[in-house]
Amino acid sequence: MANENTKFFAQPQVTAELVAAHGITPEEYKKIIQILGREPNFTELGVFSVMWSEHCSYKSSRHYLKNLPTEGPHVLQGPGENAGVVDIGDGLAVAFKMESHNHPSFIEPYQGAATGVGGILRDIFTMGARPIASLNSLRFGSIDHPRTPYLISGVVAGIGGYGNCIGVPTVGGEVYFDECYNANILVNAFTLGITKKKRIHTGLAKGVGNPVMYVGSKTGRDGIHGATMASASFSEEKEQRRPTVQVGDPFTEKLLLEACLELMEHDYLIGIQDMGAAGLTSSSTEMAGRGGAGIEIDLSAVPLREQEMTPYEILLSESQERMLLVAKKGTEAEIKRIFDKWDLDAAVVGRVTGDNQFRACFNGVEVARIPISALTKEAPVYQRPAERPKSQDEVEQLDLAKIAEPKDLGATLKLLLGSPNIASKEWVYRQYDHYVRSNTVVAPGADAAVIRIKGSDKALALTVDGNSRYCYLDPYVGGALAVAEAARNLACVGARPIGLTDCLNFGSPENPAVMWQFARVIQGMRDACIALKVPVVSGNVSFYNDTDGIPIYPTPTVGMVGLLPKVERVVTPWFKVSGDIVVLLGRTREELGGSEYLKVVHNLVKGTPPWIDLRLEQAVHNCCIEAIDKGILRSAHDISEGGLAMALAECCICGPDKPLGARIEMREMIRGDALLFSESQSRILVSLQEKDLSQLQEVVSKQGVSLQVVGSVGGSRLAIQPILQLPVDELRSIWSSGLADRLQ
Amino acid sequence: MRWGVVVFPGSCDDQDVFDSLKREMGQKVKFLWHKDELAGHFDCLVLPGGFSYGDYLRCGAMARFSPIMRGVEKFAQDGGVVLGICNGFQILCEAGLLPGALVRNAGLRFVCQQVWLRVEETDTPFTSQLKKGQLLRMPVKHGEGRYHADPETLERLGQNRQVLLRYVNAKGKSSLPANPNGSLDDIAGVCNERRNVFGLMPHPEDACSKLLGGDDGLKIFSSIAAACELKSGAHG
Questions:
Q1: How far is residue A614's CA from residue A590's CA, in Å, rounded to a whole number?
Q2: Residues of A contacting chain B (CB within 8 angstroms)
Q3: Order of strands, sheet of A684-688, starting from the edge strand that comes earlier in the sequence
Q4: Which of B31, B90, B171, B212 is the best residue to mutate to test the A interface, defined by the most A CB atoms within 10 Å of its own CB?
Q5: Which has fewest Cβ within 10 Å: A562, A672, B139, B235?
Q6: Do B112 and A433 touch (CB under 8 A)?
Q7: Nearest CA to A324 among A343, A292, A297?
Q8: Tell me: the pLDDT tens digits for B68-79?
Q9: Which residue of chain A has the CA closest to B19?
Q10: Distance CA A526, CA A590 (A)
Q11: A101: annotated active-site residue
């Protein structure tokens, strides 16, 4: 490379050390040489390293992911695009996806979380959909860990800082704390957008000679090798990797969003894709891969914000707020005019070619030439060794007889209610704008968020769920329960699921125990998706969530979207009127394995998670949805972490008005702590007027679900006879301040 | 009655205001792009919430220099009714159309929650249909909404009865927890001396439907509509 124009980027010699530093194994390097018929140069090595990274290629997970059900009558776009798309009728469609930004958020919590939100928003508006709701699923280390308050403050501020500024409401989410995340937090961001069915766009490059255009922010040196970082485990020294975290600019993204949606009103585009992980490289090669075309990029035409950037840096930069378009030839000037209006850069940086090659030039010199297929469908796929660890036997053992029942179960209830995983998350969601776009019917704090669809009677229900402790104890059951709980949360507001997206957060795939967890979780999710008839339309895998060899609990988080036919029928979890009766759908069993109670009170993570019968689960959902549709329920609340006692307490105190008491009498002949805190599945707590009970019984008997009238709403105390009696004002104060007090 | 909603780069609640006026009240509404000069006849101009220019400098400090603001200032000087919500309030303060300033919340964090507001004065277009002491419920959502003014300005605000809304508790009483951002004197919204320009931090456009939790916001928009129609009726 002695050319005058390229002298400032003398390319380093590709050595075995350099190959290893790029995370490429000797076998993979041999394959590269075989594909190219020669050694790659430094720039090409960089391209291979990001495109073959776990993050971009799904090389360890692909083998299993293909087992998930992805089809359904309303699915317009399944996995493989920037986001999944589902038909919701009336000529409308919703696009949604969830993505992880775990490693960057641990290194730099504010920017890591902010750019996670920015990335998922771009994935949605790339599809031609206007983002109308975001949610997030967060996992932090123990609340007592010295770093936790810093991390949660930064992550929450970052999510708010980006989402609030761009004007997309954050309407729900979940937050959990566990020691297993002490050195590896999880930040999973979900966004949903809405569009006309006929205006869906995809990431596609075709039509030889069509121009490739770059729009949005200028390219800098930030985030180079972010994809590779996300594909390696943490060690103390890697916390020093701060420069690989990108910096977010929500204002520019807001302009980019408006400009792109304005552009999409016209018929100028062939395809469009966000420059996310692995930036210009992945967007251009993936678009060409889908279109069966080649692509040529002139790196000297890319708008830069730093001087003397090398082709390697330009190709691998993960600067935010950038998109790549393939336009119809002749529309370039019109497109530039739209981006000018919004004060954004738009530059022609290449063209579609017919030779199926990815070619990058710089000042007239070719600096990379790689067959597109080598970077996309021919990327390595591994079936890594998977083996159930022997230690699992010990983990599953739980002898309840050896666990003493607390003497004062009222005190235990209060302890749990104020514990960080159960206490109110208002401290978190108060920092997110959940009203903007004025569609929010049910705001954060309920089982699922509900947003109306303007100009229609319908509404969308949204939830994110996942209990990693269950997955650790039994990954198969845990995977199934994550899907079941999400669907149950939707049922509690009256919605039927229409699609699912997931973030699969695991340790290193090179660890056979982790691969075993992964395979089993997928199997559990698969069976639940089939039973509950929910297609998986998009998702993301995040491996290498371990620190110094210790993996996090397997943590699949499920984002599920449901449809309510009549928005005015929507139901919320809290009790409404004194005198209403309280009814339990489903049965309580002595299931304390993996429970919040066992962890908080006895400091044990043991046993097997609660049992599930997916057919019964579906029947319970059907009852709740049908009863809500008939308008006979005043409230409905899923019973999950903390069991029946927590659900009852929440029904009394989680509403916007004064707390409302309840008198409950339980007849189950099981030990008191199990009665109160067992996390048996397929249970929903509802309240209704007594006169409507016969109608509910009719619905329930048709479905073969157990129904038990357990008490009535009223008074200023929660009384669970004959076990406890507590003032609801006190319960609210414990619940409201439980998290906030520990984070101030 | 014709409404104009100004769209700055980074406006977020422009569509919410537009929809509330058009869908909930059947009003005539037009978006006005910030790079354009103000042209055409309007009865009320709304500067909506959001993050104009990303709030990267001081909130509203850049937007006040947008070309359309010349027309907005002229419109206000001629007695036109101007409403600034949240970021719009901040822009009006930066432009000198309203007294005081909005600074970082006392808790230093963004705050999104429902608040109670007490109507303090009713002799303005914005509160014409309301009663003194009436309570309104609507959300706030901002990081920099703490109202601040020097003692002389505050005294003038009192003398001229320019404070139209205050944060109160559900019983209508001033209380520390009821003030979400530490605003001086619990001030949630102020008007100018001439009473034709009004800025408030809470969002009436997000409280225009019972389905979404309340429609007290409509009472402010209806007040403006009634006052403007009365005025245009009086003028012929």
A1: 19
A2: 157, 160-161, 164-167, 249-252, 254-255, 341-343, 429-441, 443, 452, 454, 567-568, 656
A3: A635-638, A684-688, A581-585, A707-713, A662-665, A717-721, A724-727
A4: B212
A5: B235
A6: yes
A7: A297
A8: 999 999 999 999
A9: A438
A10: 27
A11: yes
Report helix, strand or coil for B99: coil
Report which DSSP code applies to B207.
Answer: S
Inter-chain CB proximity B212 and A429 less than 8 Å: no
- The CA-atom distances, in angstroms, between A279 and each of A56, A208, A285 are 11, 23, 10
Helix ranges (H only) for A60-205 are 62-65, 102-107, 109-125, 148-166
Residue A622 buriedness (CB in 10 A; 0-12 / 13-18 / 19+): middle
pLDDT > 70: what percent of chain B? 99
The Cα of B215 is separated from the nearest Cα of chain A by a number of Å equal to 12
Beta strands at B197-200 and B81-85: parallel, antiparallel or unpaired: parallel
Residue A636 tokens read as 């409905």
Instruction: Tell me which H or E stretch contains A684.
Output: strand A684-688
Q: Which domains does chain B have, with CATH numbers?
A: 2-235 (3.40.50.880)
Closest CB to A437 among B16, B53, B139: B16
Cα A268 to Cα A284: distance, rounded to the nearest angstrom:
18
Share in percent of chain B as helix, strand, coil (round to 5): 35, 25, 40
Phi, psi torsion values for A472, nearest 5 degrees: -65, -40
Mean pLDDT by runs of 10 across the 744 residues of chain A is: 50 90 93 96 94 91 95 93 95 97 94 96 96 98 96 98 97 97 97 96 95 95 68 55 74 97 96 91 95 96 92 92 97 97 96 97 95 93 95 94 95 98 97 97 96 95 97 98 98 98 97 97 98 97 91 98 97 98 97 97 96 97 98 97 98 95 91 96 98 97 95 98 95 97 86
DSSP code, position B215: -
Across the interface, which of B35, B54, B141 has its CB nearest the CB of A435? B141
Its sign, for the CA torsion A524, A95, A430, A503, is positive
Which SS3 state, helix, strand or coil, does residue B232 take?
helix
Report phi then psi at A426, rounded to 5: -60, -35
Percent of chain B with pLDDT over 90: 95
ipTM: 0.95
Q: CB under 8 Å to A307, separation ≥6 — which residues?
A: none
